[in-house]
Design a protein that fits this description.
Rossmann fold; 4 strands; about 100 residues; alpha+beta
Length: about 100
């Protein structure tokens, strides 16, 4: 069996949202809440779901455009959170995300 090229474990992405008069009340939006999967060479992943269910947020977290609240994204055995700027650019070039717009 091939090693996973992309290994996502318990990924969470939460956003703080202010509401109410003067923005005093805070709510937490759980855009992505505990997703795990692996992709191996030659595999393709498609995400389908209702509007607002976290598909684009997950894609942005995989590209490290949004910092995950918890969990890990490993690419070829390396945690993307620790990649240098140059390595991050190379990593992003290796992924292809097609947004629904």
């Amino acid at each position: 069996m091939n090693e996973a090229i992309l290994d996502v474990q318990d990924l969470q992405l939460h956003f703080s949202q202010r509401s109410g008069i003067f923005g005093r009340e805070r709510a937490v939006v759980r855009a992505v809440d505990g997703i795990s999967f692996q992709l191996r060479a030659g595999e393709t992943l498609g995400l389908v779901g209702e509007s607002g269910c976290g598909k684009s947020s997950l894609g942005k977290a995989l590209l490290n455009l949004h910092k995950p609240t918890a969990g890990t994204v490993m690419y070829q055995g390396k945690d993307i959170a620790g990649l240098s700027d140059r390595a991050m650019r190379e990593y992003r070039r290796s992924l292809q995300i097609i947004f629904q717009d």
